[in-house]
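Q: Got a minute? One more chain.
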Amino acid sequence: MKVLNASIHSILDYATVIAFASAPTLLGFSGAPVMLAYLLAAVHLAMTVLTDMPLGLVKIIPMRVHALVEMLVGPTLIAAALLAPSLVVGAQGFFVASGIAICAVWLLSDYASATQSA
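A: Always. Here it is, folded:
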């Protein structure tokens, strides 16, 4: 069931950037989790700004590529946090929850609506 159109997906992508960028301060991360959160914020912002969707600014990345990246990043975040917890000490729950959220948005998004509404 695809309940998230491209406009809603765009908004959620920018919210994800804010979540990754603010998590270290709000949740008191230190060490590697801080850098990982900021890296994920930067990559997600670049992908969102460059994707051909309603709130994308440059529109050079096709929505299907954006979808593929999300399909890979969500499970990777979950696996990395669970299989290598020493990399995300003190932030394991955040990264697992973030991975689950990214997977959920991927599953619920109607990526085809981007070409219809862009």
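A: Helices lie at 6-27, 32-50, 63-83, 92-108, 113-117.
Q: Perfect, thanks.
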